Amino acid sequence: MGKEHLGELEELILTVVGILQDEAYGNAIVKEIKEQVNRTVSLAGVHVTLYRLEDKGYIRSRIGGATKLRGGRRKRIFTITNSGLAVLKSMKDDRVHLWRLVPHLR
Amino acid sequence: MKIGNNKEGVRPPRWAIAFLNWFCPGFLFETIEGDLVEQFEIDLKEVGKNVARRRFVWNVIRFIRPSIILRNIFSTDLIRGYMLKAYFKSAWRQMAKNRILSLIHVFGLAVGIASSFTILQYVSFELSFDKFHTESDDIYRIILKQYENNELKNTTAMNYVGIRSLLKDNFPEIKKFTGFNFLRANTGFVFRYGNKMYQELGGNIWADSSFFKVFPSMLETGNASTVLAHDRNLVISQRIARKIFGDTDPIGQELQDLGDLTPGSSFIVTGVMKNFPENSHFHADFITKIDRPTDTLSEYWTTPQMLTYVQIPRSTNVGSVESRLNALIKNLEKMYPTTRGTQIALQPMTDIHFTTGIADEREAGTSKIFIYLMTAIGLTILIIAWINYVNLETAQYLTRAREIGIRRIVGSSKHGLAVQFLVKFFFVNLLALVVAVILFWLSLPQLAFVTGITIDNIQSIATKIGYLAGGIFLAGSLITGTYPLLFLLKLSPVLSLKGNLGGLTGVKKGNHLLIIFQFTSSIVLIAFVLVASQQLNFMRTTNKKIDLEKVIAIRNPTAYADQPDTEKHNEFKVLENKLLESPDIKLVSSSSAIPGAEMAFTIVNNLKRNAKDPYDPTREKIFFVDYNFIPLYGLKMKAGRNYSEGNGVEENTGRIILNESAIHALGFHSADEALNQTVSLAIWDWVKPDFKIIGVVEDYRHETIKKPIFPTIFWLNQNRFQQVYYSIKLNAGANPQNALSYIKKSWKEVFPDRPFDFFFIDDYYDQQFKSEVQFSRIFAVFAGIAVFLACLGILGISLFEANSKLKEISIRKVLGASIANLVSLLIKRHFKTILIAGALSVPIIYVCASNWLNSYPVRIQITLWFFLLPLVLMIALVGLTSGFQITKAASTNPVDYLKND
Fold first, then answer.
1. pLDDT number for residue B3
2. Who is most buried in B209, B288, B563, B782, counting CB within 10 A?
């Protein structure tokens, strides 16, 4: 029962979770965003947004494996849900529709 | 644990991890920490050890957010920031929809909060007495306890002059102590500066040189050790400095003494002190040092006449000082038999304001019980206001049950609803707080007038009020929020959709109990008001056996002036004759004391059957009158006669008049028995062994009925010893204002340069009841508020019930019920509640009233009236408030409400 609209950061992170599929967790998302759109986001910001997205039901989480790099601490891995995909699609449709209406972007 | 591939074992700062552990909810910690550590490793490679560590700490800090920290406490649903805004909107709309109800909510709460502010101010003021002195906790007053046959006869604030020498000689660890007394208990400080004569009544203290060592914070200009070093040094208050000297520097100026202590010589101003604040147990505008060469060693231990204060260092045990002093006093008994049976006690200075029962107390204090009572009332009012709120809210839910049911079904979690309502409560409480502050500021002047609490003191407790405000706000929100919350969660959504509110009977019962509490407290408060005002009335009107009506008193400041006695007497006679020319004036008299204040001259062991009789510790009062005093005040003679001018000048010819108590103290069994007997009377230094008792005055209440009647000696005196007061009795038909202007004119003719200081005796006498008057006023105010709030609650509920029961009312109407039937049906429930409350209030009223009344030597009886009247009043009020609403509802057209079904 949340809003249909996502904030800009929420949208970004939700999309990246969609990209990373089963590999989406804090550090990976930070890295992916940096690589794909050359933007620096903070780990804390990512975490907070992830939890919010989870509350809204667009992603779900599970506890994943530990690695030596993390000193044996496990990670929380997120995956996108159907409703998350749905909202992404609807946002994409809206965006594209609007951009097409801008004369210079045609 | 080993971190990653880091060969050197560099780790992120451990304290940062510990910190994270502290604020991060448990289930999130591990994964967050892991992410942070991974980031750390990456940073290590990129930017090196130091930067990596810095970044780690920074990242940890950035995790400090409500959505992380509070994730444990609230379930996930709640932290939807965007929802909060929606909740606020919904709260606002709800309130706007039911304007009247909302107004009642907010206003009721605001009144409750404002009341508690006021009470806080009062309590805080009272509790702050004397704390403004530096190290006030270590200052003690040495009081004297006088025993006779091992029975405590008297406790007095005064002490022997010699106590200080005992301290000096035997207690090297105690360095700060002082003794002082108030000069001229009955007139002020009379002096001349420039061409003006002043009579200042603001307290004139004669002290030793250490006064400011014990009370250093009072001294504004001047050195505490030397400002009173020499004889005739004078320290004045800022107020006096401004009044007399304006902007000139008062230091070094001379004031000419017009009293008769050491006539003609001057006082030199050596210092200026702060004005004694309201919350001090004594006040003075002048402090002087006067050497007393007449203090012989024997004088040290005769009459207690100095207030003695001592500062005891923390390291010294107070109890041991007390016992050592008492042991020393016991040793003096042989040499100074007047000290037999006396003990001292060390009274903490901050206790003085709250202690009663000590004689020679300059200003009256208050009792701690009253403070507790006030706090209890404040709490009660607040609780009543909260109860109102809670009841109204829960009642409202009953109508909104449908809406709630829908919300629940569609998916709003329990907690979501909880947040919504919490938001509303915060909102209402905040609003109420704001209104309360406004109410408080607006009503301050009125309150100050009614209760006698001054406004200046508000500044000093502004911070405390701030804390209390915050506390009330938080507590209020929590309490008023959680109670309805609890029942909300029990609502079954499906059932409530259907309109069935099963499971709510528990809540209804709860509400019922709360209402009973409200009513009971209202009834109890009303009863208290009744009892207090009855008792007050009784004390004021009970037969004092003295006639105070239409008597104007003038205080003659120069009664002590250094003038030959005959001159003073002639001046008085001139005035008297002038006054008697007026048809308004019946009698004029001069005396050293007037009814309404304790007589200043107390003697012990001076009045005896025979000069050689053993020591008599009875405290007796002596005052000086002229021929007209006894008839002017309508005092009755039990035996014998008044002094009579016709018998030649009777003074100093060995005639004396005593009152009944004095007679009994001497051992006579009746007034007639005492008549014409001779007694020995010692006054100052001479003893006259053969005064003949020519009259016995019937005991009368010179002071309030709260105080015992002293054995009193009426000494005839013609403007010799301290004839300070002139009493003027007006004729029955006289207009007081006219008489007053005539008197003033006459005064100015006889004493052109003296201030005209007058007052009405009945007012003056009445001032003794100041604390009771204040008490009953305050009670009345807050009882009124409590009742008002309780009625407000009833109003709200009935407003509400009328609405919700409309359907039922309509059906009943259709079925034939009359308006009267309906009204009585709806009111019946309330009445039952009131009756229960009434029953509960009976024991409370009885116990409290008895206790309070027992503290008075004369008291009224507790009658049935005190229980019935409040009850009847409550019933009337409730009937009015609810009846009105219900009648309105009952008279509507039933069709309107049955349409929807």
1. 46
2. B288
Partner B contacted by A60 (CB < 8 A) = no
Share the mean pLDDT of chain B. Answer: 78
Contact B195, B211 (CB under 8 A): no
Between CA B386 and CA B432 the distance in angstroms is: 11
Q: Does B412 contact A at CB distance below 8 Å?
A: yes
Residue window 806-845, chain B: list those with CB within 8 Å of chain A.
none
List chain B residues with CB under 8 Å of A44: 59, 62-63, 65, 68
Any idea what DSSP says for residue B262? S
Contact A75 B31 (CB under 8 A): yes
Nearest-10 Cα torsion for B885, B890, B891, B895: 130
CA B778 from centre of chain = 10
Residue B131 dihedral angles phi and psi, to the nearest 5°? -85, -5
Alpha helices in B206-343 (DSSP H): 211-214, 238-245, 318-332
How are beta strands B607-608 and B678-683 bridged, if at all? Answer: antiparallel
Answer yes or no: is pLDDT of A26 > 80: yes
Please enumerate in sequence order all residues whose Cβ is within 8 A of that of B403, keeping only pairs 6 or more positions apart, or say none: none
Helix axes B81-97, B414-451, angle to 10 degrees: 60
A25 inside 8 A of chain B by CB: yes
SS (H, E, C) B32-44: HHHHHHHHHHHHH
Rounded CA-CA distance A75/B251 in Å is 82
Q: Is A71 on the interface with B (CB under 8 A)?
A: yes
Task: Please tell me whether residue B71 adopts helix, strand or coil conformation.
Answer: coil
Q: Which of residues 5-24 of A touch B (CB under 8 A)?
A: none
Which ranges of B194-317 does DSSP label H, i.e. alpha helix? 211-214, 238-245
pTM confidence score: 0.64
A66 to chain B, any CB pair closer than 8 A? The answer is yes
Residue A31, pLDDT > 90, answer yes
Question: Which residues neighbour B387 within 8 Å (Cβ) at sequence distance 6 or greater?
Answer: B514, B515, B517, B518, B793
Digit-coded pLDDT (tens) for B744-760: 888 888 888 777 888 88
ipTM reported for the complex surpasses 0.85: yes
pLDDT at res. B462 = 61
Q: How far is CA B699 from the centre of its chain?
A: 33
Whether B34 sits inside 8 A of A66 (CB atoms) is yes
A101 touches B: beta carbon within 8 Å: no
Give the pairing type, strands B342-348 and B686-697.
unpaired
| Tokens describing residue B857 | 């030597």
Contacts of B611 (CB under 8 A, 6+ apart): B680, B682, B687, B689
- The beta strands (E) that lie in B479-584 are given as 551-555
Q: Does B34 touch chain A (CB under 8 A)?
A: yes
Average pLDDT over residues B870-899: 71
Contact of A98 with chain B, judged by CB distance below 8 Å, is answered with no
**Closest-CA residue in chain A for B56?**
A43
What is the rounded CA–CA span in Å between residue B525 and residue B849? 11
Distance, in Å, from the CA atom of B127 to the CA atom of B332, rounded to the nearest integer, reads: 39
Please name the member of B41, B68, B76 whose beta carbon is closest to the beta carbon of A69: B41
Window 40-59 of B, Cβ < 8 Å to A: 41-42, 59
Which amino acid is residue B793, in one-letter code?
Answer: G
Determine, for residues A70 and B4 on separate chains, whether the beta-carbon distance falls below 8 Å: yes
Closest chain A residue by Cα to residue B30: A73
Residue B742 has pLDDT above 70, yes or no: yes
Determine how β-strand B266-273 pairs with β-strand B233-237: parallel
Q: Cα separation of B732 and A85, whole Å? A: 102
pLDDT band with cut points at 50, 70 and 90 for residue B410 = low
Q: In A, which residues are within 8 Å of B4 by CB distance?
A: 68-71
Chain B closest-CA separation from residue A19 CA (Å) = 19
